[in-house]
Design a protein that fits this description.
The structure holds two protein chains of two kinds. By secondary structure, chain A is an alpha/beta fold. Chain A contains 18 helices and six strands. Chain A folds into three domains: 1-74; 85-271, no CATH class; 286-457, Rossmann fold, CATH 3.40.50. In chain A, helix 1 packs parallel to helix 9 (235-259), helix 5 (118-145) runs antiparallel to helix 8 (210-232) and helix 12 (292-301) crosses helix 18 (447-457). By secondary structure, chain B is mainly α. In chain B, 63% of the residues are buried. The chains are: A alpha/beta, B mainly alpha.
Amino acid sequence: MSAFDLQQYLDFAYIAAVVLFVLSLKFLSSPTTARMGVLCGEIGAALAVLATLLTPGLREYRWILIPLIIGAGFGIPLGLVHMTAVPQRTALSHAFGALSAAMIGIAEYYVGTAPVTRFEMGEIALEVIIGSLTFTGSLIAAGKLQEFLPQRPIVYRGQNIVSLSVLAGALGLAIALVVNPANTLLFPIMVVVALIFGVLLVTPIGGADMPTVISLLNSYAGFSAALLGFVLNSKVLVVAGALDGSSGFILSVIMCKAMNRSFANVMFGAFGQVQVSAAGAKEERVVRSASPEEAAAILSAASKVVIVPGYGMAVAQAQHKVRELYDLLSKKGVDVRFAIHPVAGRMPGHMNVLLAEADIPYDRLIEMDEINGDFPQTDVALVIGANDVTNPAARTDQSSPIFGMPILDVDKAHTVMVIKRSMNPGFAGIDNPLYYLDQTLMLFGDAKQFVGGIVKELGGH
Amino acid sequence: MPQDFISNLYVFILAGFVGFEVIRRVSPLLHTPLMSLTNALDAIVVVAAIIIAGRHETMLTTVLGAIAVAASFSNMVGGFLITDRMLRMFKSRSKQQ
């Protein structure tokens, strides 16, 4: 077979891969077909990789096979991490994706004998800048999620001016390179400046904003791959990058809407600083608390219970105890459902994965818009480690920083029980009037231990 | 403006629309697996990395290509693996009994 024919077969393999990728995402529309989607994606990826290994002109298989083995050596353990580590794993995979897109873009600048044209230089520069900043930004996000770095926002005076100047510096160097692509000295400097910007971009963002940031980094990683497709004139990269980029973009929009905030506000607002002034002015208000025994009695007397999980449940790893509670109450004939806020946890869909891992059937996990109307008919709303997403101030208090954010209307339930470690304000430092309502009972303690206590009372173990 | 750029732009825009329509229909239940799956699909950049590394034009580009092969293949393997693990956990009530 001549090289030309082989090239055509490669193109057909890539087209097949692209079709399989779209089908893969299509099957993800329902949990019943979703695993078929993974299979489609795997077949498509395998086809594309095998076809590429047959490309004419590859001389050094050593430099391909050894990195493939190393990649698998990293990828398999990263695919087997515990479900609680999924947010940081996801951030790390955005970093890897962006790293490889940046590396290929950089190589493309140095490869070949003829200097790149101005147009190509522009494409490469943009691609490398996005890839580099996504790489370091995602590493910082992963570090925050793994708690190597503090989750609180790290801010200083004039931060936005410094960050934006660094970005302007990277773009300025890119323009200088477009003017004179042969100025090879500027290229590595541009890469370094873009890497620094990635660090500056994510460092000031607090843990509670991670669902949006992870989605945005997802979309950057995708778009850098699509841009790489432009640089290399590879349609399969353009399509895969566009799919990944639009997926990340849609998720970012959903997350921003769920917090009633703009992209700019998330990226530059440094939300989540403890608001000292608001906290200081607050008068002492009484809360009612209850013991596991009392909570168990109230729950077993209920007929409809809605459990609202949040990041606190994930931190305490309480999901398996929650499942025991769900089982015991269901056995007593109590209707138990879970209310999932889009930004509960540290990444889109975080709570669903944790509860599914604990074997809670997915048809019990209800989205915010669907369940909100049911709270007035709910006997008990049990909030486990969620705070801001239940704060009624978002509906009523115009001065609240979260005013306008869509929330779960737990305050409309007949009885509200909130498991919380203490009365300290939550991550965003915003006081929650829910805790002072007449129908609210505070259950102070560690989520896992407290739910364990309720389970014991209900006759579990 | 090069002709390739225009044809790639067509592909990009159409793929963006397809992506938007398909992903809009993904159940919010599955947003975490969606992210890990798109990440695994995005790791298809490994094909470009393989070509850069395998052509072995200069030591620099080969090493950059090799790093890219390892990084993206790790995403491909790990992404598919964890997506499937997550999806296996999602069971309906009828399946459990």
